[in-house]
Amino acid sequence: MSDYETILYEVRDGVGLITLNRPDRLNAWLPQMSVDSAHAIEAANADPAVGAIVMTGAGRGFCAGADMSETFQSRIDGVDPGANTAGGSGGLPEGLDWVALVREAKPLVAAVNGAAVGIGLTQILPFDVIVVSEKAKLSMAFIKVGLVPELASTHYLVQRMGFGRASEMCLSGRLYSGQEAYDLRLADHVTAPDATLDRALEIAGDIGANPAPQLRMTKRLLTENCAETDLTLVQARESALLRECWKTPEHHEAVKAFLDKQKG
To answer: What is 7-208's CATH topology?
Structure first.
């Protein structure tokens, strides 16, 4: 495992596994946790042996929101809790664009094994797949502490759940069970508590076995086109990347393998 302050990182069967590692605090978030996670994602992106990435939490929690004393109280006391979070986006250190990093990265799967509250939830909304334990607890609890959501979550939550359900979740600040999150389309898969990580690793492995350049291209199209209403522009973006794909060895090899199999 690689050495980080707030996370663990390892590679399992072609999947990069990030584990938020403050189990005594239910993995309560610190700015350094995003810095460490970003470095791990970048390491996975640079590793040709890694096809996809999973994030989970150590112990009973996934991430129970920001560490109240070391983030909010520090800021109230006049002490920035990280590297100029006041100048950054969504309370993250200046220069760290988490949403852009996630959307440009190899495929990311969240394995939500416990509480995912506040930034514990918003940090994974731009992920490609969210797997939750049926006993997980998820909440957009910002309203309860006099804050508003961050990390483009007011976009991604609506994309996942629809406007009305996203509005209720944000405006009420209540806790949702993992099963509720799945039923409301916030999560993509729900599992028994002891199966969450295994299922996420399985999904990541299946996805990561596909051609790496085309995975990143497809993510780019989904990012750019998910809210685009100009269908001419949507098709132009798709066509531009399709023309790139025609020239790639991954495409050539797949076509050859298909035709060889037909001949056999």
So the answer is: 2-enoyl-CoA Hydratase; Chain A, domain 1 (3.90.226)
CA contacts within 13 A on the Cβ side of 136: 39
Q: Which residue intervals of the chain bear CATH 3.90.226.10? A: 7-208
| Calpha distance 68→6 (Å, rounded) | 16
Q: What is the pLDDT of residues 74-97, one digit of tens each?
A: 999 999 999 899 999 999 999 999
With left for phi above 0 and alpha for psi between -120 and 50, is residue 175 left, alpha or beta? beta
Reported as a single tens digit per residue, the pLDDT across 165-213 is 999 999 999 999 999 999 999 999 999 999 999 999 999 999 999 999 9
Cβ-contact 17, 56 below 8 angstroms = yes
The residue length of the chain stands at 264
The packing angle between helices 231-246 and 212-225, to 10°, is 170
3-class DSSP state of 146:
coil
**Under 8 Å between Cβ of 124 and 110:** yes
127-137 pLDDT per residue, tens: 999 999 999 99
Question: CATH class for domain 212-263?
Answer: mainly alpha
CA distance 264 to 261: 5
Query: In whole angstroms, what is the distance from residue 255 CA to residue 72 CA?
Result: 55
Identify the three-state secondary structure at position 193. helix
Average of per-residue pLDDT across 218-236 = 97
